[in-house]
Design goal:
This protein has 6 helices and no strands. The protein is an all-alpha fold. The chain has one domain.
Length: 152
C-alpha cells in the first residue's frame, strides 16, 4: 500500500485552508446580513473549523512540532521564520475575537472572521505554492540527522 507524499499532504491541507477561508467569509457576510441565512449557510458554517484544522495540522507537520496551544504554535512559527509573518499574524489576530465570541461586540466578531479568513487563505495559498520545497527541506533535514547518527 502506498502512502501519500508530504507534498500531497501539504496540498490537501492548503486546499482545506482555502475552503475554510471561503466559508469564514460566508459566515461573516451572513452575520453582517450581507447575504441571507439559509439552510445551506447554516449547514456549511461548522466546516470552516474542520477544514482549518487540516491546514493547521499541515503547518504543524511541516514546521511546528514544538508548539502547543494556538499562541505557542504561532510563536514557534514566527520564531522559526519559515512561514510568512503577515498572514500568520492575521491568523492569530483574527482568532482572538472568534475565540471570545460570547464577550465581544458583533462588529469585532465580524472583523475577526474576515481577518481570520484572510490569514488562513494567505497561509493556505503559500503552503500550496511551497509544498514541494517544504518536502525537500524536511527530507534534507532528516537525511542530515541520519548522517550524524551514522557517524556517531
Amino acid at each position: 500500500m502506498s502512502h501519500p507524499t508530504l507534498t500531497t499532504l501539504y496540498r490537501i491541507g492548503a486546499g482545506s485552508g482555502v475552503g475554510s477561508a471561503l466559508i469564514l467569509l460566508v459566515n461573516a457576510a451572513k452575520r453582517a446580513e450581507v447575504i441571507p441565512t439559509s439552510a445551506i449557510t447554516q449547514l456549511v458554517a461548522p466546516l470552516a473549523q474542520i477544514l482549518a484544522l487540516a491546514l493547521v495540522a499541515s503547518l504543524y507537520l511541516a514546521f511546528g512540532r514544538r508548539g502547543g496551544a494556538l499562541v505557542a504554535f504561532v510563536a514557534t512559527l514566527l520564531r522559526g521564520r519559515q512561514v510568512p509573518t503577515v498572514p500568520l499574524v492575521l491568523y492569530a489576530t483574527g482568532a482572538v475575537p472568534v475565540a471570545l465570541r460570547a464577550f465581544v461586540p458583533d462588529l469585532a466578531l465580524d472583523l475577526g472572521l474576515v481577518t481570520l479568513a484572510v490569514g488562513i487563505g494567505w497561509l493556505a495559498t503559500w503552503l500550496f505554492q511551497e509544498s514541494g520545497r517544504i518536502t525537500t527541506r524536511a527530507v534534507a533535514r532528516h537525511a542530515s540527522s541520519r548522517m550524524v547518527e551514522t557517524a556517531a
